[in-house]
Structure formats: structure tokens, C-alpha cells
Design a protein that fits this description.
This protein has 5 helices and 7 strands. It has helices at about 15-25, 30-35, 90-95, 130-150, 155-159, and strands at about 5-15, 40-45, 55-60, 65-75, 80-90, 95-105, 115-125. It has a 7-stranded antiparallel sheet.
């Protein structure tokens, strides 16, 4: 059995792909106030949340357990509305040699949008399960963020 793999989920959303990409590429620090399973995030190293070498520290719930890790942005592709986040340290390093979250906001031909999350991973041993809990986490977080993004503008400004 291979220790490496990629698992993905694609979820239809109400907000535009542009709004989705904007919140992740320019307002990432707000996600901790929007997604229920994210308990906190702080800038660990660097001056800006949205540049590649800044390190963020996250605390969130996966499979009913509180998990912590650090994250950097590996790449941002504005044209394809795609970002790659590298997760490492703390709870991640106990189970994975490689752990990347790939975010893509997709414009559909019918005018709707979808969010695709992929988890690219390499487990440290065969005893570690593939990170299906992260896909479930992403699915729930998409619902939380989409509800926030489609709120009337005056409510969003108060948050």
C-alpha cells in the first residue's frame, strides 16, 4: 500500500469564485472568525498573512480532536484562483512527511461556482490513516465560509 496520495472534494457554493479566492488570498486571517472548527490562528513569523514565507499557527478540530500546526503559502495562482498551503509541525509531523492543502475556486459555465479542496499527503507509516478527516473538515468549512460570503453587505461590515 502506498504511503502517499491525494484526496479531493468539490462543493458547489452560492458566493462567486472571485469572492472565495479573495477571502483566502487577501483576508485569510478572517477565516478563524468564520469557520466553526477553527479555534484560532496567528501570524507566527513574518509581517503579512498573504506572502509565501510568512508562517501562521492554526488550532482547529479534526475528527473531534483539537489539532495544531503551522502553515505557509507555497503558491498562489490568481488566474486559476488556486492556492497551495503547506502544513507542518506539531500534530501534522507526527503523522505525515508531506501535507499540502490545495484550494481552488472554480467558475462554472452556468454562472455558478464550486470550491475544490485537495489534500496531498505522504504518511510516515502504514499505521497512519489517510487524512479523510481533513476532507470532512474542508466540507464543513466551505459551508461556514459560503454562508458568510453571501450575507448582506451591511451585516458583513459589522463582523
Amino acid at each position: 500500500m502506498s504511503l502517499a496520495g491525494i484526496i479531493s472534494i468539490e462543493v458547489g457554493v452560492l458566493a462567486t469564485a472571485e469572492k472565495w479566492f479573495n477571502i483566502f488570498s487577501k483576508q485569510l486571517h478572517h477565516i478563524q472568525n468564520i469557520a466553526e472548527r477553527i479555534h484560532g490562528a496567528k501570524l507566527h513569523q513574518g509581517d503579512d498573512w498573504h506572502i509565501n514565507d510568512s508562517v501562521k499557527h492554526w488550532t482547529y478540530t479534526i475528527d473531534g480532536k483539537s489539532v495544531t500546526c503551522q502553515e505557509i503559502i507555497e503558491s498562489i495562482d490568481e488566474q486559476n484562483k488556486t492556492m497551495v498551503f503547506k502544513l507542518f509541525g506539531e500534530d501534522i509531523d507526527k503523522q505525515f512527511k508531506v501535507f499540502n492543502l490545495i484550494f481552488q475556486a472554480i467558475d462554472k459555465k452556468d454562472g455558478s461556482a464550486a470550491i475544490k479542496w485537495s489534500v496531498e499527503y505522504e504518511r510516515v507509516t502504514e499505521d497512519v490513516h489517510p487524512p479523510f478527516g481533513y476532507i470532512e473538515f474542508c466540507n464543513q468549512s466551505v459551508k461556514d465560509v459560503d454562508a458568510y460570503l453571501v450575507k448582506p453587505e451591511e451585516i458583513v461590515k459589522k463582523l
